[in-house]
Amino acid sequence: MANGKNPFLNLPQSLRRVTSGSAFIPEIDGLRFLAIFPVILQHFSERISRKGPTPTGFNGLLVRVLSNGHIGVLIFFFISGFILTLPFGKQKLLNAPRVSISKYYLRRLTRLEPPYLVCMTLFLFLLVGVYHQKFGELFPHYLASCFYLHRLIYGNWSPINPLAWTLEVEVQFYVFAPLLTLFYFSFAKIRRRAVLIGLILAKLIIANTTPFFTSFSLTLPYYIEYFMLGILFADLYLSEWKDGVSKQRKFDFIAIISIIVLFSSWTWEQNVLLKLIFATSLFLTVYSCFRSVTVNHFFRNNWITALGGMCYTIYLLHLGLAEFIVGKFSHFILLTPWFVTNYIIGLILILPILFVVCVLFFLGIEKPCMDPKWPSKLRTQIASFLRMT
Question: Which residues fall within 8 angstroms of residue 6, CB to CB, at 6 or more apart?
Answer without folding.
Answer: none
